[in-house]
Amino acid sequence: MSQPSTPAPGASRPADPRPGGDSGSPWAAGGTVFAGVLLFVDGILGVLKGIAGIASNDVYTRINDYVFKFSVTSWGWIHLVLGVILVLVGWGILKGATWARGAGVVLASLNLIANFMWLPYTPVWAIVTIAIDVFVIWALCTDRSNPSDLVRSS
Predict the structure, then answer these.
(1) Entry pTM
(2) Angle ∠(90,96,101) on CA atoms, nearest 5
(3) How far is the C-alpha of 151 from the C-alpha of 149, rounded, in Å?
(4) I need a labelling partner for 109 at 20 to 30 A (CA). Which of 6, 42, 51, 103 fits?
């Protein structure tokens, strides 16, 4: 006798073949790839922001009485260094490196804090960057899929 191809009513579903069980939301998995792209682009924008601040002190508004007052050149170096590191981590996320997710959360958090402190110099640009960083942190923290599976399936 042949076995039926569909399970009998009340039978349990087959176990998830992937180790670790729940793969998480497909939105979060797609969000991780998008977070890698955003982190990469955010890093490039940070590099450009840093170069502009280093090249000329007149590019950004000067703030007289501000708690987190640094020279524009100092802010330029901060954004340049953070931008280069963000590009590398964004590339790592896109390549499926396991270290890149944790580093992405940490660096997006640092970039968020730096842009909060940078807010009076370029408010719109800083708010956009903060929003990008919040999305990146969310996407990297909610995806439970295995990064090596994403690379193998591509």
Answers:
(1) 0.71
(2) 55
(3) 5
(4) 51
